Amino acid sequence: MPAAGSVAVIGGGIAGFATAILLAEAGVAVDLVEAQPDVLALGSGITLQGNALRVLRRLGIWDGVQRAGYAFDTLGLRAPDGTLLAELPDARTGGTELPATVGMYRPDLAALLTKRAAAVGVRIRTGTRPTALAQDTTGVDVIFSDGVRGRFDLVVGADGVRSWTREAVGVRLRTEPVGMGIWRAFTRRPESVTRTDLYYGGASHIAGYCPTGADSLYAYIVEDAQDRSGLDAGERLATLRDLASHYHGPWDEIRAALTDPARVNYTWFEFHLLDGPWHRGRVVLIGDAVHCCPPTLAQGAAQALEDAAVLAELLLAADEVGDGLWAEFTARRLDRARSVVDASVQLCRWLLAGERGDVPGLMAGISERVAVPA
C-alpha cells in the first residue's frame, strides 16, 4: 500500500500535474485543484532541459512533447550586431536518447499534462481554491471555495511563488528581487532561428530567444529592474521593440514580427529557497512554493518536475507518511535545488556587477549535477 491513499494537490502547474499523474497511475485517489478557471491559457514559452524531458517521458507524454515542441542540441552565442561568436554543444542532461533542450508553447504542455492526468483518473477541479486547512496525525481536512470539503492522507502544495498552502501551514519565506527585469514575447519563428542564441551586453544584459514549435518562438530581453507598471499594452510593445532594435542577426526578423501587444509581458527576477524540511506534518510543498530563481539556467521547470518525481517515488514505496520519508525527500531535493538557485542568482550578480565570472564552469557544474537522476 502507498503511504498515502488519498492526496489533494493544490496548484495546476507543472509540479502539481506531474505529482498527480504519478500518484494516480499507481492507484492513489488524487484531487487536483487550480484557482484559475483555465489551465490551458497560462503562459507563453518554456524551455525544457534534458532532465525535465526525462521526467516528462516518465509521465507518458514524451511523444506529445516531441510533436508539439522544438528540439535542439546546441547553444549559440552572438554579439549585439548579430555576429555568431560560438556554437556550443549543449549538455544532454536527460541522457543520450533525449535531446539537450526542447522549447515549447506552455499551454501546449499544459494540455498534454491535463489530458494525461484525466486519463489516469485525477479529479481535476479548476476555478476553485482551498480556503481552510487543518491537520492531525492521520490526515488533513480541507475546505474549498466551491463549498466542497475533503479529508486527505496528504496535501501537496504546488501553488507557486505566492503559495497559499505555504502560508496556511505557517511557513514564512522571503522572496527577494535579484535586480533584473525580463521582457518576454511570443511570436512567429523565422527560419533562421533553430536553437537558443544568447546575446550578452549591448543595451541590455541579455537578449535571447527559444524556438517553441515549427512556427513559433519566445524572445526575451533582460534589463535592470524597473517599474514598468505604468505602461499600457501598446507602450510595453513599443518599449520591447526599442530595446530589441539594439540587437541584430535573427533579432531583426523577430523584431519585425513583434506586433501583438497582448503577447508581451514584463516581470522581475526573484528568488527564494526554503532552507529546511519542505513539509509540515502531512502537508508538503514543492516547486516554486519552496524554490524559485531567475531563468538564467532554464532549470525552473526541471526542478519542479524532479520534486514531483522524487516525492511520488517515495510515497509509493513507503508504508507510512513519517519522519523517514521526509528525511529522504529532504536529502534528495534540498541541496540539489539550492545549487540551481545559487548558480542562477550568481549569473545575475556577475552581469549586474559587470564581472566576467566563470560562466562556463558554473554552467558545466550544474549540467553535470542534474545529469544524474534526482
Care to describe what's here?
This protein is of the alpha+beta class and 374 residues long. It has two domains: 241 residues, FAD/NAD(P)-binding domain; 95 residues, D-Amino Acid Oxidase, Chain A, domain 2 (2-Layer Sandwich). The chain has ten helices and 20 strands. The protein has an eight-stranded mixed sheet. The chain has a six-stranded mixed sheet with strand order 8-2-1-12-19-18. Strands 3-7-4 form a three-stranded antiparallel sheet. Helix 1 packs parallel to helix 4, helix 1 runs parallel beside helix 8 and helix 9 runs antiparallel to helix 10. It is globular. The two termini are 23 Å apart.
- Helices and strands, in order, run as EHEEHHEEEEHEEEEEHEEEEHHEEEEHHH
Number of β-strand runs: 20
Which overall shape is indicated by the principal axes computed on the Cα atoms?
A: globular
**Tally of structural domains:** 2
At CATH level 3, the topology of the largest domain is FAD/NAD(P)-binding domain
CATH superfamily of the largest domain: FAD/NAD(P)-binding domain
The CATH class of the largest domain turns out to be: Alpha Beta
Q: Give a quick account of the main beta sheet: strands, pairing sense, barrel closure.
A: 8 strands, mixed
Quick structural overview:
With 374 residues, this protein is α+β, with helices and mostly antiparallel strands. It folds into 2 domains: 6-73 and 102-174 and 272-371, FAD/NAD(P)-binding domain (3-Layer(bba) Sandwich); 176-270, D-Amino Acid Oxidase, Chain A, domain 2 (2-Layer Sandwich), CATH 3.30.9.
